[in-house]
């Protein structure tokens, strides 16, 4: 069956064209599933097309050959051009469209607006009172001011209760005095803080009459709006180059008794009255909502990072020929090797699974903020916190692994920056650290799991949230041939056993006399394992739910193959738990392996189109190996020729050092 596949173009590498002709589904239809709606998938294409008509937004020089300063300058130039076309390109204030625009034009190396849009504005939306929004939100949205989110300090990132920056209230002047008492209290890491932002949301310990109330968000002007010079009392700068993200100026910030008006404490949920009396928020952790916002986006964003690496690796694997199978007259596409498929296809399945989770958690966050802001209803906070804590940790970990496998799948050329995979990897794995270090967040998820197990043990299963309901499921014998539900049942048993085992271990240490904190630490590895299994179960169930809801028959069939691969791969990956606890037999293991191998064969003809469906433009991919037209070799040669080292035949370093050295050696 051949579909009217928009990706097919006769000028392309014939190997890629052949792949596209074998697809059993329409990539536009698949894009609707990936991006959540027909409307948004179409808008994305429209925006991409409009961008391609703006000459100033087409990449000129490869980013790999730019210095850090050049990258930042280039990102600012592109932002300026974007700003001029903003209203023609996207619906103003549509976050998803803005994100697409950014990914397409500026790519992933970071830029001065990354934190403005992802944390500064969302914090104003969720934490500022109506009056404060009136004052700052409009200006921020019009990009009259640029803001960032300054929370992490040199000495503390994970343990927010020990942040040292203070905001001491002075009732006589009705001001807060921001101060950095020690070197470790310097804000350190915030994106776009160093050189670009002139405002920041600063998380500081609120102190009133010598009493500490813990971290609270303040809006703080850092630089003069006309000259962009730091205001007196403020020390601010860039923290230097990083593993990736070098188009962003992550920064440091110190305050020397810097005064801000009382009205700069964001007061939607808590207040400090002129006399210093404090009205507490409806939930103690409501001030952490911006972190939950970003975490709720991360399954989607990380899924898209891994998708980019896989588009590159899969397309390249379809044009790279090396070695023989039966026919010795022509070398095979490396994508035909089972090992190559095993390296790439499970990650393709994870990409789809992560994105489906992201579509869900982004909506859950939006609903939560509506509930909190309109009705003061904070009842959804704990569940969303534990879900997104586990999800960000699991997704970032597997994304890092998947991207690294994609690099290796491209052989030597994967290691060249021409592939762009190293940049994607560097950016993606930052997600293992930012928005909460992965172990720390897995342990947050474990808190909710342990509480749920304790509820079951205390005889209150009716109090469990729906996500935890599997903890009450009895052990059963499962026939795997029945379909996805059987896999879910086995996964539930594995996850349940681990949650109970970890909790039992925690309790055992406590009974032996350890405090809960010490017992917790002694059980931490087991607890993180329980969190991972719990989260992977959620991912698996979301994948099944989503595929079941698809109406297009051919899209559903292609995704069912991918889902089957995911189910078998995931179960095999956690088989040691199942075998140890007698949940699965070795015969069932053999069945799963065979299913997995036959899934690889089924997916093979659709592999390129499953990745084409993400509809990333060449501008966004920035990869010589991943070019849509598949003309890899001649473009690798052009790319190498444009290296600054090749702009002269004899380098000054040769004249200055190597030549004299060789001359000396002759003597
Ligand atoms: C021209 C035009 C431009 C236009 C622009 C267009 C738009 C485009 C946008 C651009 C996009 C660019 C592309 C994006 C690329 C990605 C960019 C990425 C940027 C990355 C930015 C990174 C930012 C950061 O990292 S910010 C700092 C993050 N820091 C952390 O995450 C710290 C982690 N630590 C914590 O969160 C806490 O310390 C925690 C939770 C570990 C512990 O907190 P605690 O206060 O100590 O609490 P604890 O005692 O442990 O728990 C008590 C209790 O409270 C519960 N709890 C904790 N947190 C929460 C919560 N948030 N919600 C609910 N409940 C919570 C906890 O579970 C406990 O409960 P119980 O067990 O019931 O007691
Ligand atoms: C690219 C990037 C962008 C960032 N952007 C921002 C930003 O915009 N704004 C901002 O405020 N911050 C930002 N950060 C900072 C980031 O949020 C923190 O680095 C992160 O929260 C981790 O905290 P940490 O550095 O203190 O790690 P640490 O907590 O020091 O982690 C070190 C080790 O200690 C372990 N550990 C720590 N506590 C525990 C515990 N309780 N139990 C078990 N193990 C533990 C961790 O697992 C880890 O292995 C950014 C960081 C990066 C890398």
Topology:
Blueprint (H helix, E strand, L loop, with lengths): L13 H8 L5 H8 L3 H15 L15 H22 L5 H11 L8 H14 L2 H12 L5 E4 L15 E5 L4 E5 L7 E2 L10 E10 L2 E11 L12 E5 L12 E5 L2 E4 L9 E2 L5 E2 L9 H31 L18 H38 L5 H29 L1 H5 L5 H10 L7 H20 L26 H28 L4 H7 L1 H25 L4 H21 L1 H6 L5 H18 L3 H6 L5 H4 L10 H10 L10 H15 L1
Parallel strand pairs: 1-5, 2-5
Antiparallel strand pairs: 2-3, 3-9, 4-8, 5-6, 7-8, 10-11
The structure holds ligand LFHR5U4W and flavin-adenine dinucleotide.
Task: Give a description of the structure.
Helices cover 54% and strands 8% of the residues. By secondary structure, it is an alpha+beta fold. Among the domains are: 145-281, Beta Barrel (Butyryl-CoA Dehydrogenase, subunit A, domain 2); 290-463 and 484-611, Butyryl-CoA Dehydrogenase, subunit A, domain 3 (Up-down Bundle), CATH 1.20.140. Strands 1, 2, 3, 5, 6 and 9 form a 6-stranded mixed beta sheet that branches. A 3-stranded antiparallel beta sheet has the order 4-8-7, with no helix packed on it. It has a two-stranded antiparallel sheet with strand order 10-11. The radius of gyration is 27 Å and the shape is globular. The termini are far apart. Residues 79, 82-83, 98-99, 102, 113-114, 117-118, 143, 149, 151-152, 157-161, 191, 285, 288, 291-292, 301, 381-382, 385, 434-436, 440, 444, 447 line the site of ligand LFHR5U4W. Residues 288-450 form the Acyl-CoA oxidase C-alpha1 domain.
